[in-house]
Amino acid sequence: MSTQRPLRVAVVGAGPAGIYASDILSRADLSATGFDGVSIDLIERLPAPFGLVRYGVAPDHPRIKQIVVALEKVLGRGDIRLLTNVDFGTDLTLEDVRRHYDAVVFSTGSIEDAPMAIPGVDLPESFGAADFVSWYDGHPDYPREWPLQASSVAVLGAGNVALDVARMLAKHADDLLPTEIPDNVYQGLKASKVTDVHVFARRGPAQAKFSSLELRELGHVPDVDVIVDPEDFEFDEGSMAAIDKSNQTKQVVKTLTDWTLKEGDGTASRRIHLHFLHAPVEIVGTDGHVSALRTERTRLKGDGTVEGTGDVHTWDVQAVYRAVGYFGSPLPGVPFDQLKGVISNHEGRVLSPEGEHLSGVYCTGWIKRGPVGLIGHTKSDASETVRHLVSDAAGFERAAEPDPQAVVDALTAKGVEVLTWNDWEVLDAYERELGRPHGRERVKVVSREDMIRYSRQVLAEAAAHREA
After folding, report:
1. Where are the beta strands (DSSP E) in 100-140?
2. Measuring CA to CA, which residue among 145, 111, 102, 105 is closest to residue 20?
3. Which residues are within 8 A (CB) of 134 and not within 5 positions of it... i.e. 6 or more apart?
4. Residue 104 C-beta-side C-alpha neighbours within 13 Å
5. Where do the H-state alpha helices sit in 225-365?
6. DSSP codes, 417-430
7. Among 98, 183, 350, 436, which residue's Cβ finds the most Cβ atoms within 10 Å?
């Protein structure tokens, strides 16, 4: 009789990166590892899976959210066990993981705002874009209300997140009703006083990181004019090379150029202003609150980079949103690179402070390589990590308690209410039912308590029915 057992792997983080890694590992050839197949637990600290797709994509982007359909097919197969509402570091420590699994893959992403060191950044109306995105996407760990008293707002950044923030601030709340926007977010945006949103990029149009599709969508928001000042347009040799090299860049520049030539009729009640070659230097406060933003005009240096000109502009705004990138969060007991905001690693193998590979410990996604690239890029990233894991597997120190039930029993003993794929299907059906009377795909349940309660509702009703 064979004494071999499956390779037990925990994947921590059930966003796209974790699901892709789990899927690739589930189909890997383990014949040379000494294990008989693989047993995967996908562990998520929130009650719902899908990470960035559920909590990082603007609700008016259903096209991107359709990625969930592919992810659902993976988890719906049943060969990857989903354990949600389990927090690594408190509910499950690295020591616990070592006891129950032969290997672990961290795919926790980057959910914090990258730091920005300018005066005034700590004023109360200076917001991180990541926090705002989490609010309007109904993340359970964020407040239900958001201060939206400003009439004029600055958004710092030249990527798609900056566009999402600008669009969500400028868009009329009623135009978001067909989406999955939570009711508290709708009510907050409905009461917003915003009329003007200014987006600032420190480099030129050819260096902007907007995708052409996202940028074009900005021009189709009802009752919102997009304004681009021709004086902000400058192209150097580096710019022309970027345009020649990338069709995406060419399309972005064309769209922006068309807007400089377009004269609106001035009837729109809200405006989005796109400013290039403006580097933020200070968020100005008056009586402890944001009253203005100061920027320094920059100029291109010939290679696509910029330098300051000393020409300072002051913009009357009452709030500032910093969309200058995401940053990873350290995990208890896991080596972390504080400068890069990622788990210390080489090609997904987690490294000790001495640079040695920690046997059986891996990472993938943004927590591995930083917050760059689109969701689809995580597939190749996961393939690299899984390839190393499989090649190392024969040398793993085997888990002392590999029985899949053992980890669930240990969590239950700690008082953790572990949810599974079946529980998510119940919550998913409930959210869809909430949206159906209004012609919406779903209405998202926001609070953690409600998510758990509705996830367990069908099971509780079934149990009560049996007792009756």
Report:
1. 103-106, 112-113, 126-128
2. 105
3. 55, 56, 111, 141, 142
4. 25
5. 237-245, 247-261
6. --B-HHHHHHHHHH
7. 350
Between CA 104 and CA 397 the distance in angstroms is: 12
CA distance 135 to 145: 8
The C-alpha atoms of residue 111 and residue 121 are separated, in whole angstroms, by: 19
Q: Which two tokens stand for residue 417?
A: 């209410």
Q: Which two tokens stand for residue 400?
A: 């002392």
**Rg of the chain over all Cα atoms, to the nearest angstrom:** 24
Give me the residue label for tokens 């977010």: 185
Contacts of 330 (CB under 8 A, 6+ apart): 336, 338
Contact partners, residue 345, CB within 8 Å, separation at least 6? 351, 362, 363, 368
* pLDDT tens profile 422-434: 999 999 999 999 9
Q: 234-269 pLDDT, tens per residue? A: 999 999 999 999 999 999 999 999 999 886 667 899
pTM: 0.92
**Domains, the chain, with CATH or none:** 7-111+328-419 (3.40.50.720), 113-326 (3.50.50.60)
The answer to whether the beta carbons of residues 261 and 184 sit under 8 Å apart is no
Q: Which helix (H) or strand (E) holds 165?
A: helix 160-170
The answer to whether 7 and 102 have CB atoms below 8 angstroms apart is: yes
H/E element, 374: none
Query: Is 264 in contact with 228 (CB distance < 8 Å)?
Result: no
Is the distance from CB of 237 to CB of 186 less than 8 angstroms?
A: no
**With contact defined as beta carbons under 8 Å apart, do 100 and 10 qualify?**
yes
- Total number of residues shown for the chain: 468
Helices 160-170 and 129-136, packing angle to 10 deg = 50
Integer CA distances (angstroms), 267 to 223, 225, 261, 264, 399, in order: 8, 9, 18, 8, 67
Question: What is the structure's pLDDT at 460?
Answer: 58
Q: In this structure, are residues 282 and 312 in contact, taking their beta carbons and an 8 Å threshold?
A: no
Q: Which helix (H) or strand (E) holds 62?
A: helix 62-65
Token pair listed for 309: 């000109």
Tell me how far apart the alpha carbons of residues 28 and 389 are, in angstroms, rounded to a whole number. 10
